[in-house]
């Protein structure tokens, strides 16, 4: 969102000039107010979440957009949907499987992966026109994945280790997490440094691509969402409305007040200040001050929401139960 | 005939031809038995037609939970108001025996070997062991406060008893009929299911709005799963992939992925939905809705209620038979 003064207006013009100056000062004050606090501006106040038709009743658990037009969502029973018009229309892609696909990522318009039940790893090299099963295991579930590029990737699930590929998913090896808990989400900020979070509040960290993982923290609640905007600044969210944040790469964590007791499932920050969280019962939270204050946003749904993604301040999506897809429509900037 | 009308008629004929055989084969042939607490009766429902084919009046009070024998030829009904178990022949739908059990007989489960019926007696804090060969109580096991339900491991070597009043799950050795361990669970622990591999016992905790997963090997709670308000009845899908739990306090049902322990869907259903069972093919769920006096049918794939079958007052226990 940008707000600009009228370039044709003069600063000093007699009595009217004094009035203009007063208006201008008020205007500047308002802009500063909006920029420095968690108060939404006029255009932000008109922003809203809008439900778009997905054409499926299956739960959607992951969302990945590469640009404002191009995106994919995945979910139950092998569901993968693709849009090339910003989410106005969604086309089903043939995933070749009927398992629940819990995680999804793309490194570019062609290379993508989806993971889910039975340790299934699906891959596409053509934007999802064709998906193939790269890997399949016996009984566990993959819940999250992260790719640093089209070769280096990691995945987590209902087992206490982390799996890693160096060949685009063709083969996977186990990395020792040094814990006994499952992991639900993983993120790498570089090919070397990453974090994973999961059940019983486990947070683990690596600086060598996962060759060694160290336990950074244990919180009381299960953790489901994770996002670092830099190698220092990150957030994790979970059960009972838990939000934890770090400013030193996870060495120390502080709690933030979510104001809700529902489970929070996904977190995404645009920068160190603006962030979004989604969770149970249609919960959507937003902060404009790095999480010092979180405010509940009207989502228009009571369905549980699984995942959120923002490309920038204008373009965001959230997905959830019963084929729910919400699109963030930023308010129009004043003339 | 106008073109568009002709097209519509033709399309309707094609659709009806397609829909006929599909819908007939989509619903598995099965019989649903429902205990109506408020009218002391059993409703017998044909799952395919969604019709109550018989209502059996009971001589006892407040039928609560039901189960079938291992060969599925006999129906057992726990009567919380008359402290006994009624035995029905499934084929004739006639009462063949009445077995006195403990005070406020709440839950009934047949041991995997088919020889014994265990009842959880909420009023006497006991589990009665009934030998089915003679329909007599052969042992009484002291358990926790307000025992609700019992589930056996597939090999029959352990039984797990949910004690709603003492917020724990007790591990019982059926060979010695001794309590081996008590696992602290949560307030109002009730529903119990066990995974087909026998590795996990799942219990609902209505006072916590949770489902807890007990690791059988360590006898510890492995995970706690947030669900809806007043989580109550539990059911495991025939393929072992899903657990359904009713949320009585918010008129919904949560579907949980067994592999990931994550709630995949929450489906609005009935009013005060209580006990739930899967259809034999796992495609449908049948839920007793106590305040509407109905059995609600949920299409698992479609995530919605597709039928509401009126039964009698305050339906509670439900089981699917042949």
Quaternary form: heterodimer
Low-confidence stretches of chain B: 1-25
Taken from the alpha-carbon principal axes, the silhouette of chain A is: globular
Question: Order of strands across the biggest sheet of chain A?
Answer: 1-28-27-26
Shape of chain B: globular
β-strand amount of chain A: 35-45%
Overall mean pLDDT score of chain B? 92
Strand order of the largest sheet of chain B: 3-2-1-28
Please report the total strand number of chain A as a whole number: 28
List key phrases describing it.
heterodimer; A: 335 residues; mainly beta; four-stranded antiparallel beta sheet; globular; disordered N terminus; B: 322 residues; 1 helix
List the topology elements:
The complex is a heterodimer of chains A (about 325) and B (about 325).
Chain A: H1 14-36, H2 42-45, E1 48-52, E2 60-65, E3 71-75, E4 80-83, E5 91-93, E6 101-106, E7 112-116, E8 120-124, E9 132-135, E10 142-147, E11 153-157, E12 159-165, E13 173-175, E14 183-188, E15 194-198, E16 202-206, E17 214-218, E18 223-228, E19 234-238, E20 243-246, E21 254-256, E22 264-269, E23 275-279, E24 284-287, E25 295-296, E26 305-310, E27 315-320, E28 324-329
Antiparallel strand pairs in A: 1-28, 2-3, 3-4, 4-5, 6-7, 7-8, 8-9, 10-11, 11-12, 12-13, 14-15, 15-16, 16-17, 18-19, 19-20, 20-21, 22-23, 23-24, 24-25, 26-27, 27-28
Chain B: H1 3-26, E1 31-36, E2 41-46, E3 51-57, E4 63-68, E5 74-79, E6 84-89, E7 94-100, E8 105-110, E9 116-121, E10 126-131, E11 136-142, E12 147-152, E13 159-163, E14 168-173, E15 178-184, E16 189-194, E17 200-205, E18 210-215, E19 220-226, E20 231-236, E21 242-247, E22 252-257, E23 262-268, E24 273-278, E25 284-289, E26 294-299, E27 304-310, E28 315-321
Antiparallel strand pairs in B: 1-2, 1-28, 2-3, 4-5, 5-6, 6-7, 8-9, 9-10, 10-11, 12-13, 13-14, 14-15, 16-17, 17-18, 18-19, 20-21, 21-22, 22-23, 24-25, 25-26, 26-27
